[in-house]
Queue: 2 jobs
Job 1
Amino acid sequence: MNYNLNTGNEDKKKKRLGFQSVKSLVGHMVEEKKTLLVAFVAMVITAVLNLVGPIIIGNTVDNYIQTSRFHGVLINGAILLGAYVIALFAGYLQTRLMGSVGQRMLFTLRNSVFQKLQELPYDFFNQNKTGDLISRINNDTEKINQFFAQSLMQFLRIILIMIGSAIFLVSIQWELGVAALLPALLIWIFTKITSPWVKRKNAESLKTVGSLSSEVQESLNNFKVVVAFNRRDYFRKRFGLVNQENYKTAIKAGIANHMFLPVYSLFSNLGLLIVLTLGIYFISIGQFTVGLLISFIAYVNSFYNPLRQMASLWSTYQVALAAWERIRRIIELANNMPQTDSQGVDDSATLLSFRDVSFAYPNGNDVLHKITFDLRKGRTYAFVGPTGGGKTTTASLIARLYDSTKGQVLLNGEDIRSFTPEERTKRIGFILQDPFLFSGTIRENILYGNYELKEISNERLMQIFKDTGLESLLQRFENGLDTKVDVSGDGISLGQKQLIAFMRAVLRKPDLLILDEATANIDTVTEQLLDEILQKLPETTTKVIIAHRLNTIANADVIYFVNTGKVTRAGSLQEAVDMLMKGKMAS
Ligand SMILES: Nc1ncnc2c1ncn2[C@@H]1O[C@H](COP(=O)(O)OP(=O)(O)OP(=O)(O)O)[C@@H](O)[C@H]1O
């Protein structure tokens, strides 16, 4: 399945942008309904109070100022002041509420994206760069927060004020009202035509922010190689290129986002000009009063001024929409490795079987082609073969890190896909070539994912270590279980990492233990020790050992030779060696 977030679905994406996007974003806000409603009411109060201002002013000019009845001016002034003070408090309430909605949205979205990332299969992480994912979680969600916290209610308030002003304009004098509103129609057409382009420019800009983040992450992760090979210039150049691309797309997005303001201002001024010219003409022929013209100009201003603000809000909206599309692509991804119904028959002697299994990585040829073999309970299997032959891929299918493209993998006679991830990982332990550890103590690392022993006391844990023989490994760490593991720096060697991963896997007592080059960085004396620990595992434990060092597999019951898409059983260690030599000579 294509999990690459930066390719595919382009046509679909275009169609989904806009209304569909907003609808799905609103779907994520159901819990904010109450707060949004209160904020909306506060916003309506602010808008309405601001709208009545011009009509009171016009009325004051015509009825009190021109007739010098100043007590009326004072009363209307007091009413206006009261309205503006209430509008101020309502505005403050709305801003505060929306600020908290924005923060909660940020919190919820980041949680949803992170949760989804936890659910997605291994393949997803092969196809996407960590830096880009980090950028989506940090940067893109923040753009949505900015829109909610600063723009949404302002956006709605502006729309309300504009509608209100338009109604006042048309009802005061409809011909003049329609003439004043004509430039708004031109603005609407302009916005409609340019919006898809603006959206595209924003999406491109956000994408390059993701690339920039990936580049930084890659070079920081590989700084040792960079220093060792003195290739700072190489990463500097690569970073320079991506940074340049980011700069260019950001400039283009900036141009796109900022072109609205001057265009909106031009049309607003046009509206004002029309009103002034026609208004003065209507006054000269006695169809209009000065007070009405003052009200009229005030409403034209309260129609067009927010439109100028709308220009910058529109760009915040476009950025938020593009950011939401990037987040939504993760949230809506389906895991292509679902759990299926179990239909198998248990064969008591066989633990795991491949039935005509083929597998290809996305956009690649078959790495495994129609493979069939059985792994019997309690036996030790060695998988050997040349580099790139397909050993790790076979092991990954055994552990269901990937699903086969064709054929079936059976665990205990049942389709491996019918097991829950918890059941599967309890039965199958996998020690990878480069084990994953996280910063913490050895105890935390070895109990990682072990739900049964999660709360076990150190005393009881040490007893298990004694019984299983793991104690001798733990003694190699200065502070035993409490030894700190710092994976961000150089605090731990690869061999030590492999020892911790070994303890973690053995402690789970899985039915099937896969060791993929798991002892490649361990000295031969310790390797002997590991072998003794493996011997102490329950008799029924099946072991799959992938190794290049042939002494590691000397005790295997069965040896499989993996190369060019095939898995062939070798009769003996000598035959496996011959196969390897032949393979090497052929290449
Ligand atoms: N994530 C991936 N995406 C695409 N191709 C891959 C991926 N992982 C491995 N391959 C390809 O699949 C083939 C088999 O790789 P695999 O890692 O299974 O070999 P291996 O026998 O374990 O090699 P080694 O002994 O070096 O560990 C290789 O051609 C490799 O390039």
Job 2
Amino acid sequence: ETKKGFRTITHSPSDSPSILVAPSMSRSIFFSKIAKKPEDIGNPRPLEYDFYRKSCPQAEKIIRSKVRSLYEVRSDVAPALLRLVFHDCFIEGCDASVLLDAVDGIDSEKESPPNETLKGFDLIDMIKSQLEEACPGVVSCADILVLGARESVVLVNISLSLSLCGLLSYLGLNLEFQAGGPFYPLQTGRRDSTLSFSEVATYELPNPQNDLPQIVASFASRGFNERETVSLLGAHSIGTIHCRFILNRLYNFGGTDEPDPTLDPQFLDLLRSKCNDSHTSLSPSPLLSPSSDDGSASRSSSSQEPGVEMDYQGRGSGFGSLYYRGLLESKGILYVDQQLTAEEKTEAWVRAYASDDSLFGRDFARAMMKLSNLGLLTGPMGQVRISCSKVA
Ligand code: HEM
Ligand SMILES: [Ca+2]
């Protein structure tokens, strides 16, 4: 009873000025309707390395092997889990709030417009059910999200370096390669929220049409500097962008009836060949015009929607550096991506990462650790859900 409504906000982004928060959406008003402050909660416990060592010693191993086995059969596993952790941690911290279904007429984050094309909920459920078999009620969905994203990053890099190794040995070059990319250590012991923050997600997740000052302000409101922001966007090395997010750049940029003039002309042709004009009327950007569509319906239909692979040249190797090299050649797919080269203060980092993979790897790993530790909700706050989409 009193458990429901527990919420700690160690990190409260709207306390700091954020141009992305609509004035009408005052957080305190929103919370006061649904959140009760617990009377006697004790001190929150810090995270620990291998938090589950006694309660569920095989937890991290189960997550790793499940992500790996899913990755072998589904190529979208890594991008789905990586994006999911960003969308969870950015909104009220890493508390699995993004996974909750709507209940009793309260909208869920999942259904908020910026989350309409999120994927990977089914993957989290599969991992969770294996953990529930091994240790019922012990491992939080929030920890599954951060650990699952970390395993995805490692896998992407392993497979990329292996394919590079394969190519080199095919060419008769026997160079030694260290497989595996930026692995980052993560502490555990996060707990799951009992609340979903639909309005916060709607107004505070960055929009693909944001310009550089908006991107910088948005990430700064979560404690990220420009260097960290540029490195995090390197996540856009993998996955798919649906056409709806870039149609305006291709056909009618800022109402001009012309494409975005900063796009490389050949690249523009390539993107147009994947996203033709007829899609314009079919799919207005949900991020520009929030719709009342059911989130799950548009999620399943978005898998059939046309899109552009982020590694569009089949570039294979190079999580990070090839994304940044693309930006230097005016071949950013999203408007936000290309905005990273709009000013010297961020372009300098784009250049640095374009030419130095290991610098990028280190910075990305550090920024992912920081992202994974936003807004901690630890015992005795929150709860451990049994099913990740429902409050326990
Ligand atoms: C300014 C900040 C950002 C904006 C506006 C943004 C926006 C977007 C958009 C519009 C898509 C395409 C979604 C679709 O077509 O379904 C996307 C995909 C993706 N984003 Fe971001 N993003 C941002 C930052 C990040 C960060 C920080 C991460 C992770 C650390 C991330 C990870 C991903 C991944 C992995 C995908 C591919 C998803 C997939 O293929 O399923 N993004 N992003
Ligand atoms: Ca969250």
